[in-house]
Fold each of these.
Amino acid sequence: MPLKPGKIPPDLLKLALEKLKVSSEDILVGPKYGVDGAVVKVKNPLLALTSDPITFTSKDSVFYLMACNINDLISMGAKPLYLSVNLLFYEGVTEEEVLNTFEELGFYSKKFNVPVITGHTEVTPGLKSTILSGFMVGQVVKEVSPEKVRVGDVIVQVKGVAIEGTSIISREKQDELAKVFGEPFVKRCKDFLYEPGICLFDVGVKLIENYDIRNLHDPTEGGIVTALFESLQASGLGAFIDGDKIIVYSETKILSEYYRIDPLGLIASGSLIVYTEKREAERICSDLGKENIPAEIIGEVREKEAGILIKKQHTLKELTPYERDQILEVL
């Protein structure tokens, strides 16, 4: 039954909240009908906070909500703890859609062990699609920052590029691509969202819990070259980047060649840039390699005066960020 603008009916909301039940001694007040907030115990004095909305219609919107907020916290050296979520349902949403959204929230909160502890729900007049907005809290495990990066440190790329761009292009252009490359190829590219996956939870937590890391940065819009430029600018340092060592998935190369775009400038959620000492970088690459997680040293940090340079196919040039993501050349 389509719902009218306003509050979610009490019986429906109570049923939906049952899907978010969590058991933790640190959650003193959790999601419950008639309660407008949450109370939790904090063991570590250092917390990291982030917020990200999902404004597009997609059956994967809850996963995107989790992944985007988780990746932001990982990049701050924090292990995700709790999620607060505002659910603004579109006018005419059905009870089934509401329950499915809560079902997915419950599923992913358990998968990543990030309980949904509070939030807000309503049916909003004028909305044509549901908007999800998350506020996530994490416990700082490793204090990372651009200021900690030193000359002589190396730059490690974990997981290839461009996971998200590959998935989006194959979903938006699936009919065209299926005619050229076949259905199995398109399905493989579409599934990049989950495998190799845009969420950095597992590999990110492993890194911050087990290695001495200076700084982290997750590439998003503008691809890995833009992420490298942004993070080095924040550090106030220069670098030499070996562009030929940047990990690019074969599927991404095929799509990039077909559409004549640069995969290094394609939206790259799912990859991670790590700044650390060389010996630690070698240990990271070796350990992740044993788990079949791609990792490669792709550059070295230098003095600011040296500039930010990238070598590609024997050509050395200044690294410049993309003002527009390469995906906009396709869609």
Amino acid sequence: MIDESSEPSGPQEPVPDAGAVDEEKKEFEEVLEKHRKAGKILARVADDSKRMIIVGEGLLDIAESIEKMIRDNGVEPAFPVNISLNEFAAHYTPEADCKRTLGEKDLVKIDIGVHVDGYIADMAYTVDLSGEQGKLVEVAEEALNAGIAEIKAGVQVSKISEAIHAAFEKHGVKPIENLTGHKLLQYILHPGVSIPNVRGNYEYTLSENEVFAIEPFGTNGAGHVVDTDQVEIFSLSNMGNVRMRETRRILNFIQEKYKLLPFAERWLAAEFKSKLLLRSSLRELMVMGLITPYPVLRDRDKGMVAQAEHTV
């Protein structure tokens, strides 16, 4: 119904500034293009990396080769390449002196990230070298596709989680309840909004212009991961005054080089040659709460774990 009166009645909505709207749209398109560029490079690198996932290949060689492939494209890894084997679900990247090679019974999860000016693309895949865990790998991929099929502006996270959980449940595979997909922001891999892999009443509603990594993990074990004692990956959580000169140098390097993105101890070892001083500095920064450690995660019952991930 049209009001034909000449005078406005009631409070009037402000008229958007057309120039401001156009500028905001342009800025978002630029951001989206950086995500797309990161995604295209990541897709090529991930596809090329699969030829390296063979028995006898060294874990350190795989990680460094993938990271080099990323840098050869003129961009940077969004985090150290994760190579988590068997019951280990996430957060393992090889040490600087790692000698371990892939074995014929290994279930290999490769998690790779690329960023362009901090705008991230994140994906993962699983390779079964044993020939015995094919179902687990296939179900993780099916759960990923089920989650992606629900992604659109206006959908609640609970609907996405339900689709992921149901895909696992249908095949008698447990989703890992305390690992989730996550929103992506500039230089922030986990900004706080999660997409759980188990059903529940999650009220967050997706909006236009948001970017998420959908990341199902499935297992024949407990469906719950626990921290191990090993830590190879960290991220900056705060800046502050530190006592040791070398620690100050390392903290400033981390802030300048990685900002809030995760980094590996082996990355720092290439710049800071004293292993003893580096370890001491990292301990000091953890105690002060200036960096966050990411312990290697393992299924509580040591069940096999498969992972699949894609950015949308």
Amino acid sequence: MRIFLRARSASSMGKSLKERKYFLVDNGSYGPEAVLNLRTIAHSLAKITDCEVRPMGLMHSHKVEPSALDGIPGESMEAFLQSDEAGSMDQLRVLPFFLGPSLAVTDWLPRNLEKWRSEKKGRSFAVLDFLFAPEDDRLARILADLCLKRFPSAETPPPHLILVDHGTPLPEVNRVREEVGQQLEALMRKRIGGFSTCCMERRPGKEYDFNDPLLENLLRSLREDGVRRVLLAQFFLSPGRHAGENGDLARICKGFEQTAPGFEICRLPTMGNHPLMLEILADRILKDC
């Protein structure tokens, strides 16, 4: 059984998109959290755009046990492109659920779509823009709103705000974190005692130093400087093995708090379910019309 998420009401945008079909695609996951989260987002996006939105991971998601996914098997573009269904289609439109220009979006996806296109005359595909745009501060506003929901009034002393991403081999992906970080710092300046960006992990080698500092090293440095409360904004779209309840970031934070009595780390939710995120995704679809 496949999941198809389709709008049931007229779009508030004033233009019917009922004939449009999009694949909302993230990186894919072996865990159910991220798969279920993408389904929720796809369902909400279908409602506000009045078009069909089908959630898929690029890879791996079809391998998740269906019993952990409400009995509905997960799907991945990796498996879909080799299916009879894909073989019967002439057009694919893909909406990347990615913050920036990762290799998954700029290399894997177009390369595999081009292979699918070349196998039959008359086929076409389109890959829409990823989520970050330099002139758009909505990603930073999402993060700021998550901060203010956790601390609605000014704290004394004010917390140190950290924006953490996964880490990347690509400077252009890192620049997304840094630009959103600058926007977030400006939005939160009156509520925080300091601001930093960092990564969860990185590759060895000086050529990847642009990721620094590592979260663990930054937390250690802040504690040595007398900081006692940290607000950790996660530059992640969905919970999972990195940003989930028991993911890598939770493990890093818990381990640090256990060895640093009196040091508090407040980890914020992931970004993907925020109303402004749906607005960004809907804008991508509207721009495609």
Amino acid sequence: MGVMGVSIQQEVSAIVGRVLESHDITHVVWVAAGGSFGGFHAANYFMERESKAIFSSTFTSNEFVLAPPAYVDEHTLAVICSMRGTKETCEAARTAKELGAATIALYVEQSDLTAVCDQKIAYESIALDESRVERVNSSIALQIAMALVNQLEGYAEYETAMAAFDVVDAVYRKAVAYARPLAHCWAEQMAGEKTIYVMGSGPAYGSAYIFSICNIEEMLQIDSPTINCCEFFHGPFEVLDKSKPVFLLMSVGRCRKADERALAFLERYGGCNVYVLDGKEIGLNDLPDSVSEYFNHILFSPILNNVYMRALSKATSKDYMTRRYMWKVEY
């Protein structure tokens, strides 16, 4: 529970309600950079599948500043996320405000972002073991999306989804214990590899993207292309051989068929460096079938960050807090 016994679900619902009191919302844009940008995937995926009245899209912060979409106006809700106030994300918030959009900041530390935005919601960092899963940025964004659709159009599974957020942290803790020995073995095998491909689709693609660009490339300085399981068969499968390291996320939901197709090919033409992390094994099946598809990112991402990335850091003797350029040079 949050301040004065208010749950994060209730806090989010109330803030969305305040936005809708003053704005007729027809569009929502999710704006951030890096892992925060990838963290919006679950919310945008939900909006695109469940909303018939609200257009939803994601933007990396600097693109939004340089080339904002023409539709952004007083009928737009801009949800903007930055842990500590990344410069270009703060500038994106200003751009959204100047165009007339209602703005909600998701943040860990107060910054120009929270000063600019109309509303603000504090979140807990996914990287901290004590953080609760329902209170990390991707979970709060998904709650915003669900509350928005529910309040404007009605979402039949809203209460089911909110109840799932009450138990998802416990599901995650159980998954961590399950995955640790598996991650250790995988990391030992990957320790000498120079490239690790990460694959996913649909509701898990955002987790695959973050695992590649943030966990493997940024934190460990190992090349890591992200491949959509559907797009795999339209080019990338040509690089597959028996030695290629591939990490496949098997989602729960309608897109699982795409992941299964990719897995069948990987099993036929790949080798011992193909690794599969199945959403069914990390607890997504413990959530109601009517909403579990939308929780793929919510469970995959903290497990990848806090279990698999840390295991690879240990196996490679690379401190995952070390950077080559970030925070050190002008960029």
